[in-house]
Design goal:
three-stranded antiparallel sheet, globular, 15% strand, alpha/beta, five-stranded parallel sheet
């Protein structure tokens, strides 16, 4: 099964992608992971991407597309994949279609995770990260530490990242609406979009997603 996962920041795409990929026995291909892997391994694409990033510029679509195509060529993706963060605009979506067409393949579904905008802001702006270990994550409302501002695990100071501040989150949402949301209509025209309200417990959302996806035998 070949799936594209879309949704605004804070919709839980990374979490759901990991669970769905495991349930479907296909690799979770995340744009962030692709960039980190290529840069850390010093691949030609990684070096090219890093040169743009070091200069404070956006990495061109051509580099992102090439990284994604290279990853989809790997043996573990032969029977399918779940794309998370790619495509993120119409140009990338069209490039993905061309790639799949050349391979005589097609997408099975585009899973659109929907979350009300105020909930997105609440989810992200409420995050508090431990200065000692960024894997220790709390939330001002959903996962409060025992002592405000103090990590339950190591006693480190909890802080709010600049990227998680409300004004930054709303700017990220504007970018999503402008750049990424148009691909939903693009895929709706191909009758591929499966819309899912991504509210509630993680496992409940995963079950709803699995039930909404087309049958692998179809």
């Amino acid at each position: 099964m070949r799936i594209v996962l879309v949704g605004p920041p804070g919709a839980g795409k990374g979490t759901q992608a990991a669970y769905l990929a495991k349930n479907l026995a296909i690799p979770h291909i995340s744009t962030g992971d692709l960039f980190r892997a290529n840069i850390s391994q010093g691949t030609p694409l990684g070096r090219e991407a890093k040169s743009y990033m070091d200069a404070g510029n956006l990495v061109p679509d051509s580099v992102t597309i090439a990284m994604a195509e290279d990853r989809m060529e790997q043996p573990d993706a032969a029977n399918g994949f779940l794309l998370d963060g790619f495509p993120r605009n119409l140009g990338q979506a069209k490039a993905l279609d061309e790639y799949l067409k050349d391979k005589n393949l097609k997408l099975d579904a585009v899973l659109d995770l929907e979350v009300p905008e105020d909930e997105v802001v609440k989810r992200i702006a409420g995050r508090r990260i431990c200065r000692n270990d960024s894997s220790h994550v709390f939330h001002a409302e959903y996962n409060k530490p025992e002592t405000e501002g103090v990590c339950d695990v190591c006693g480190g100071e909890l802080y709010q990242r600049d990227d998680d501040r409300e004004e930054t989150v709303r700017k990220r949402l504007e970018v999503y609406h402008t750049e990424t949301e148009p691909i939903i209509d693009y895929y709706k025209a191909q009758d591929l979009v499966v819309t899912l309200l991504a509210m509630g417990k993680v496992d409940e959302v995963t079950k709803r997603a699995m039930a909404a996806l087309p049958s692998r035998d179809a």
